[in-house]
Amino acid sequence: MEFLETFTLILDSALRLSVPLLLACLAGLYSERSGIFDIGLEGKMLGAAFAAGAVAYITSSAWLGLLAAIAVSVGLALVHGYASIAQRGNQIVSGVAINFVAAGLTALLGQAWFSMGGKTPQLPNEARFRPIELPFAESLRDVPVIGQFYSELLSGHSLLVYAAIAAVPLTWWILYRTRFGLRLRAVGENPGAVDTAGISVIALRYQAVMITGVLCGIAGSYLSIAQSAGFSKDMTAGKGFIALAALIFAKWKPINALGACFLFGFLDAVAIRAQGTVLPVIGEVPVQFMQALPYILTVVLLAGFIGKAIPPKAGGVAYTKER
After folding, report:
1. Nearest CA among 119, 118, 104, 98 for reference residue 44
2. pLDDT digits (tens, 9 = 90+) for 162-199
3. Where are the domains of the chain?
4. Helix, strand, coil shares of the chain as percentages rounded to 5?
């Protein structure tokens, strides 16, 4: 029973840690399926996290914080869209620039507004998305196995966790069962054919980057007003880049993205749980090694276990309309 309890707690932690990765991964999926590579997921998440933390603190409203986060993230996404779509600039350079701008501005504004080294003050409970208890969670808590999984693993998460999970089947349905999804996938493979059919390539790509902005805004909000009680400097900690790795690992498919992000979340949860563990011969495992373990395993998995991942054919290539 002790093993089951420990395993349940690890899974619960893995689920919480995988949520921002999953949202950012789905955000990148929309963008890259349309042919726009987005290295700036990290920057949009960071800007959104700061906006959510700052606005939620000022207004004492988690919902206003979420809306502010989405607005900032969509704004950054449109900047990337303008540079990549309208001006046909280098998509990688544009994304990297957004990461640098977001990292610098959040620290600068955080210090200027709150004078706390780039952090926002700690948020009160009413300014955060609090855990939701599912029906009968408390009464089933003592039921062996099933009750523990239901009350600990399925229940007790914030609204944004359930929204992230629901976004996976919704994304699958949009991509594979709607006209918009068909056109989005087509524009990432052969924008010329889409243009010939009388459909605007530019409009489709702008719609995709805006959806990317919305999902990154929710991911950033989760970090600062759901998982934590405020914004701290560089709190994304490379999650946007891990989400990109998960997207490649998932081969640009939404259901696979759920598994990939949960795997990376699980590795992170195990690393946190195993800090300070003493192993035979080796002794105590260094904390730095355990912190680096998810990133090391990310490289190993991408290098040797996923086979050939083929991105959308028109990905990263600016489209020029033929006259």
Report:
1. 98
2. 999 999 999 999 999 999 999 999 998 888 888 888 88
3. 19-249
4. 70, 0, 30
